[in-house]
Write the structure tokens for this entry.
Amino acid sequence: MRLSAWPLAALLAFGAVLPAAADDWPNRPVKAITTTSAGGLSDIFMRALGEELRQKWGQPLIIENRPGGAMNVGTRACADATPDGYTICITNADAILYNQFLYKKLPFDPETSVTPITNAFHLIHMLVVNSSLGVKNIDELCALSKAKPGTLNYLAPGAPMVLYMETLKKEKGCDWVRVPFRGGGEAVNAILSGTTPIGLFGEGNVVGNIRGGQMTPLVMLNNIKSPNFPDVPLLTDVGYNGPPSRSWYGIFAPAGTPKAVIDRVSKDIGEVINKPEFSERHLKARSLVPAANTPEQFAEDIKRERVVAEKVVKDAGFEPQ
């Protein structure tokens, strides 16, 4: 009798440890994996966030940069980490929504390997051109492309933006050619030099060039008005009814992380993001839109957007690599 009772007692004792561990969390530093390199967008945000969370947790947030592989390297590192509540990560919509339809095989399952904690922010994307082209809107750009067939190239970092350009090309008879997207700095230089005069970027990458007169913004790509450039039209304003670019960075944890920890992290990060002074300095000033929500809301958003992502990749003509 004692032998059969022992496993049950052990299980009950083990189960009793979990709530206590969650109540005690965090009692040591928390690691935050980013999918960009040092100085990249998510790295800068997480360092600012870490300073705020240290005040709440009494523990530092240790940043570990894992860039590369279209965000797959860092996301895999997050998925492979021990789900004990001491690893979180920040990655973007590409890794969670699009890459499973762009690659024949991923080193993680975006639907089951990581657990959503909260969305952090949306990026404001816009279509810009080298100002020397002399165009002020989409129709003028399209007309110019027809007058100079095969000579205008464009850069687009993701499937939704490629789809937008290729849809315009098909519907309006425009004539431009997509070239491979390079790193942000190199891509901006390509626009400025005129070698690739059309580009689709996060506003934060080009706001200085727009204000300096080197680039002209033509349309906002995710139907979010920019407070910096309120006169630039939205996709819906120019008659485009396809899926907008939904580019965001979200906070995740390895699957299996205790729910109590997930909820605590979500709550604490949401409070930081919603602080006006933090939001203004670390998000809005960088052309980012605060997007904090609950784990359940974020999971539902991802589920819904993944359906759209599959269609976007197919309609854009991408073949899994």
